[in-house]
Design goal:
With 460 residues, the protein is α/β, with parallel strands linked by helices. It is built from 16 helices and 13 strands. Helices cover 45% and strands 17% of the residues. Strand 12, helix 12 and strand 13 form a beta-alpha-beta unit.
Length: 460
């Protein structure tokens, strides 16, 4: 499905850099290279695929040299888009990039839409839709683990699972339709029983895959972690310790933090979007009261709550009020300031937070921080194999479609259990097959494609 038009865009980040790249893809890409590139006696169209040429981009109208460049030729289908691709590597200033891009447009290309290069790679069969989505995940990866997961998706670890599910469903549908088309063969009862066993097995495999969805989403988007506690328990000190820098102001005066502070950090490959909040207490200070209200708002959206208590003071009414906010939330309770003489009753704390991990730490000297990081990793992975991230569900769209496909399998099992005829099972199995096809793009509509690729940057 090769396009009739040729697209061009700057493929490198905006701003100054040592190298900038203008990428062209389409049937006229090489011809445009001939018009703009001067380097040696042979034209770009006379060079072999995957050649690197040295020369200059020259304005065909004024004959003025725009920049000294390297030009890469990649002939179809051995390119990112499976079309003819030319890349012009010039100096990375905004002006040469803009001028060369304008020359490509005057020579017959049009400006690429966001994600159009990757969309063409998908439409031309180089990758399926879930692999195409992994491209943007690689670009946006915040840690080594999130990168590893995205690369695994691009390599097809997740796609292969979906493809295997669809192939098995198609085989089952064929068996059932054979029973419908050839009733005289008396195979209906055996086929229905066999299909029910296989569908139950498939449903179990889908359940395992869906169990990775929360972990996959966190590795992709980050674990939204909120630090809460009454004033002056060491929330900002903990943030600074985890970041390894003095990001938040720390004083002995309660109520120093008045606003929300957000930072990303890497804990064992898990991206944490960590939020330091104002201390929760009743206060007459208008600004501090606004900060406390913001704390309650971000708390409602948190994936994980870190509650800090002061080890050097008994559990107070204010502490108990904050503990009450943990109900129904994933949380770790941190008894901070263990470098000071102890006064808190840990058994009382543990009784107040049943089922929550309680860890003793010192944000000043780092005691217990390593245990905290391990506890966060255990919560995120929940026993799942860390090296298997490439097949995790990491996308809300994929998760919803898998859930819908799984629901259709449940319907099929119920139909089989009720002794309904094979055509009832076929309807449910085909519905599951189609939903899975939306994940890898085999049964997806154009409107969904537009939404997905609109998230990409221009040039990718």
């Amino acid at each position: 499905m090769y396009s009739e038009d040729t697209i061009a865009a700057v493929a490198t980040a905006v701003g100054e850099g040592s190298i900038g790249i203008i990428r062209l893809s389409g049937p006229s890409a090489i011809a445009i290279g001939d018009k703009l590139f001067h380097g040696g006696t042979r034209l770009v169209s006379q060079r072999q695929s995957h050649s690197v040429l040295y020369g200059h981009v020259v304005d065909p109208t004024t004959k003025v040299v725009v920049d000294e460049v390297l030009l890469l030729v990649m002939r179809q289908p051995r390119s990112y888009t499976r079309e003819d691709v030319v890349e012009i590597h010039c100096h990375g200033g905004p002006l040469p990039l803009r001028m060369i891009l304008e020359l490509t447009l005057k020579a017959g290309a049009r400006l690429a839409e966001p994600g159009e290069f990757t969309k063409r790679a998908f439409l031309n069969g180089r990758m399926d839709l879930s692999q195409a989505e992994a491209v943007i995940d690689i670009i946006r990866a915040k840690t080594d683990r999130s990168l590893q997961m995205a690369v695994g998706h691009l390599d097809g670890a997740f796609s292969n699972k979906i493809r295997a599910f669809r192939q098995e469903l198609l085989r089952l549908v064929a068996q059932l339709e054979a029973a419908i088309d050839f009733p005289e063969e008396d195979i209906e009862e055996i086929t229905t029983q066999n299909v029910a066993v296989v569908v139950a097995s498939l449903a179990g495999e889908m359940d395992k895959l869906l169990a990775t969805a929360q972990t996959g989403r966190i590795l992709r988007e980050g674990l939204k972690t909120v630090i809460i506690g009454k004033p002056n328990v060491g929330k900002s000190s903990l943030l600074n310790t985890l970041l390894g820098e003095n990001r938040a102001i720390v004083t002995a005066i309660p109520g120093t933090t008045r606003d929300i502070i957000e930072e990303y950090l890497n804990i064992g490959g898990i991206p944490l979007k960590i939020i330091d909040t104002a201390g929760i207490r009743d206060t007459s200070d208008v600004i501090e009261r606004i900060g406390v209200e913001k704390t309650r708002e971000v708390l409602a959206q948190a994936d994980l709550v870190l509650l800090l208590l002061d080890a050097s003071a008994p559990l107070s009414a204010e502490d108990k009020d904050v503990i009450g906010l943990l109900e129904g939330r994933q949380a770790i309770v941190l008894i901070n300031k263990t470098d000071l003489p102890p006064a808190i009753d840990q058994e009382e704390v543990e009784a107040a937070v049943p089922g929550k991990s309680v860890i003793r730490i010192s944000a000043v000297d780092g005691t217990g921080v390593e245990l905290l990081e391990q506890s966060i990793a255990d919560l995120v992975y929940k026993g799942q194999i860390m090296q298997g991230e490439g097949s995790f569900v990491n996308n809300v769209r994929h998760s919803r479609l898998l859930e819908q496909a799984r629901a259709s399998l449940s319907e099929a099992l119920a139909a089989a259990s009720a002794g309904l005829p094979p055509d009832c099972l076929v309807v449910d199995l085909r519905a599951a097959w189609e939903k899975l096809g939306e994940i890898n793009g085999e049964t997806v509509g154009e409107d969904i494609l537009e939404q997905i690729f609109a998230q990409f940057c221009i040039g990718k």
